[in-house]
């Protein structure tokens, strides 16, 4: 199958450009919020590991819990309207953080983070289900890579700018920027025509409401598809295994940068944390951007299964090595290379996964997978925070890398060493 290049997709597809622009703006604001929110919690809680763990749990777990519901919702109703209204709701929620002034106000940060995460589940479900319709099959690889690469590059840019803004202007500026970003995102989604967000067969199914099953029936249908389709179940299990180790990354970057190296090398805590998120974001974004050429090579050689498995294993080992580094910058280098590898892997994996899913059920399956992954991710974020009372963040880094890399072993067990099952899932 011929795949469009990044330039061809962006130049020739106005609707995708609008969706990509909205993500660019809102993700930039999101990372301002994340760095400022984590720094604010650290400040008012006097660097409590438990407070940090709760903050990360509130950021991840509601998204995970609501994702299956959101996926069914966006398969039944207007994906465009879901994205617009959730963006507008997040404008108000982002401003809640302005009222956090001391430890007694931490509950506001937790509630605000929970609401942002909940609305984000519906927005992301609608966006991910819409993307293949906007790009078409020829543009899906480039579209997937661009959507995720901009997200991860903005992790880098937003983290750097957010850390700088927090250090210079204070946290409240970042929260205002986050609110404005959601408003701008809603406008760009509004520019996308309703009919562009679904294929015609799915639109016809939605129009005939008398023939549609109930909400719960469709929810169960998504669950059944996931557990009975070999490839969908493989992706879910692999992502869950990865999240056992990957869930520690929030705490690792927060403690390694904001406490460990801030203490031994004299870094400003917010800037040190921002450096690590910037390195991770640049790695993930850069990996996504070279995924197009990588996928062409893999298509020619027929080595998708081999690549996905080994990329997962190697990225985990490299992240473990970061835990042995004596300086923040060396730690950041290994974090960057590890994320670069997993960025390429994720773009290849996600494109194969999206191609295998019918449009009428895509929202349910993709959000169910994401929800299961984030449930584990959020749980282990909190567990990792509690582990900080017993082990060092550098030790946790080593453990995290080994656990997340083991997802590649599971992949090989489930998929074997050929592309046979991948081909079946795409047929």
Task: Provide a concise account of the structure shown.
With 427 residues, the chain is mainly alpha-helical.
* CATH-derived architecture: Up-down Bundle
Largest sheet: none
Characterize the overall form. Answer: globular
What is the count of β-strands?
Answer: 0
Care to describe what's here?
With 427 residues, this protein is an all-alpha fold. The protein has a single domain, classed as Growth Hormone, Chain: A, CATH 1.20.1250. 84% of the residues lie in helices and 0% in strands. α3 runs antiparallel to α15. The relative contact order is 0.16.
Which key features would you list for this structure?
disordered C terminus; mainly alpha; Growth Hormone, Chain: A; single chain; 427 residues; globular
Q: What is the topology?
A:
Elements: H1 6-12, H2 14-44, H3 49-76, H4 79-94, H5 106-169, H6 171-190, H7 200-207, H8 215-228, H9 230-246, H10 249-265, H11 269-289, H12 291-301, H13 304-322, H14 328-355, H15 359-387, H16 393-415, H17 420-426
Helix pairs in contact: 2-3, 2-5, 2-6, 3-5, 3-8, 3-10, 3-15, 4-5, 4-6, 5-6, 5-11, 5-14, 5-15, 8-9, 8-15, 9-15, 9-16, 10-11, 10-15, 10-16, 11-14, 12-14, 13-14, 13-16
């Amino acid at each position: 199958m011929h795949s469009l290049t990044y330039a061809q997709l962006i130049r020739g597809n106005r609707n995708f450009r609008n969706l990509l622009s909205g993500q660019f703006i809102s993700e930039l604001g999101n990372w301002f919020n994340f760095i400022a929110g984590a720094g604010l919690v650290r400040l008012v809680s006097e660097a409590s590991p438990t407070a940090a763990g709760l903050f990360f749990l509130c950021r991840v777990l509601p998204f995970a819990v609501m994702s299956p519901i959101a996926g069914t919702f966006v398969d039944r109703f207007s994906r465009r309207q879901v994205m617009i209204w959730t963006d507008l709701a997040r404008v108000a929620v982002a401003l809640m953080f302005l009222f956090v002034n001391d430890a007694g106000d931490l509950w506001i940060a937790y509630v605000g983070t929970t609401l942002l995460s909940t609305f984000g589940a519906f927005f992301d479900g609608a966006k991910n289900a819409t993307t293949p319709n906007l790009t078409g099959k020829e543009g899906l690889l480039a579209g997937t890579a661009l959507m995720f690469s901009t997200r991860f590059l903005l992790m880098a840019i937003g983290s750097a700018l957010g850390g700088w803004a927090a250090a210079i202007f204070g946290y409240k500026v970042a929260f205002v920027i986050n609110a404005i970003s959601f408003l701008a995102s809603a406008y760009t989604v509004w520019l996308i025509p309703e009919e562009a967000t679904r294929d015609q067969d799915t639109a016809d199914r939605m129009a005939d409401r008398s023939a549609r099953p109930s909400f719960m029936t469709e929810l169960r249908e998504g669950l059944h598809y996931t557990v009975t389709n070999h490839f969908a179940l493989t992706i879910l299990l692999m992502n869950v295994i990865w999240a056992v180790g990957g869930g520690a990354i929030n705490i690792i970057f927060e403690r390694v940068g904001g406490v460990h190296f801030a203490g031994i090398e004299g870094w400003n805590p917010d800037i040190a944390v921002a450096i690590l998120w910037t390195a991770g974001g640049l790695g993930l974004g850069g990996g996504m951007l070279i995924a197009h050429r990588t996928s062409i090579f893999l298509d020619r050689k027929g080595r998708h299964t081999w690549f996905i498995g080994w990329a997962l294993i190697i990225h985990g080992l490299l992240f473990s090595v970061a835990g042995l580094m004596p300086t923040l910058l060396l730690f950041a280098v290994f974090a960057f290379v590890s994320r670069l590898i997993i960025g390429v892997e994720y773009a290849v994996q996600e494109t194969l996964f999206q191609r295998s899913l019918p449009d009428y059920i895509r929202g349910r399956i993709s959000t169910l997978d994401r929800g299961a992954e984030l449930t584990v991710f959020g749980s282990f974020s909190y567990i990792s925070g509690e582990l900080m009372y017993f082990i060092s963040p550098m030790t946790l880094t080593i453990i995290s890398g080994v656990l997340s890399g083991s997802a590649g072993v599971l992949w090989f067990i489930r998929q074997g060493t050929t592309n046979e099952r991948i081909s079946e899932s795409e047929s």
